[in-house]
Amino acid sequence: MKNEDLKSSNLIINKEAIIKDAMTAINDNQRGAVIVIDDNFNLVGVISDGDIRRVLIKDREVYSQISDIVNLNPTSVKEDVNKQAVADKIFTESQDINILPVVNENNVVVDIIIRDPEKRK
């Protein structure tokens, strides 16, 4: 995915967003998760539809910030490795992961690898 495409992608959301924004992005991308970044495109974490569901059950508002629910230790792939081979191994080992952020040495998201790109969740 090109940098221009990343900036407008519904696979990425800014850390300042609210839960409703994350829900909308996940609904639009149909991957079950969204990658959370900061203003400099640094990887902050990942939010899944399950994460959102769990906080809404606890009476959180959809207008609450996503900062409290983001998984700050997401699985990611470094750009200087055989990305597809690493991603294939991760996808095989974890059926719950559908998108993988690819980060450079500075933790900046430079690409996204999608499990089964033609298949929607």
Kindly describe this structure.
With 121 residues, the protein is of the alpha/beta class. The protein has one domain (3-114): Roll (CBS-domain), CATH 3.10.580. It is 30% helix and 22% strand. It has 4 helices and 6 strands. The chain has helices at residues 3-7, 19-29, 49-57, 83-93, and strands at residues 12-14, 33-37, 43-48, 77-78, 99-103, 109-114. The strands form 2 sheets. Strands 1-2-3 form a 3-stranded mixed sheet. Strands 4-5-6 form a 3-stranded mixed sheet, with helices on one face. Strand 4 (77-78), helix 4 and strand 5 (99-103) form a beta-alpha-beta unit. The longest helix has 11 residues, at 19-29. It is globular, with a radius of gyration of 14 Å. The model has no long low-confidence stretch (mean pLDDT 91).
Strand order of the largest sheet: 1-2-3
Name of the level-1 CATH class = Alpha Beta
Percent of residues in β-strands: 15-25%
Q: What is the C-alpha radius of gyration, as a whole number of Å? A: 14 Å
Q: What is the count of distinct domains? A: 1
Structural class: alpha/beta
E-strand count? 6
Report the CATH superfamily.
Answer: CBS-domain
Point out poorly predicted stretches.
none
Mean pLDDT: 91
Shape designation = globular
| Main beta-sheet annotation | 3 strands, mixed
User: Which oligomerization state do the chains in this entry correspond to?
Assistant: single chain
**How many individual helices?**
4
> Helical percent range?
25-40%
Terminal-residue CA separation? 20 Å
CATH architecture, please?
A: Roll
Give the ordered list of helices and strands: HEHEEHEHEE
CATH topology label: CBS-domain
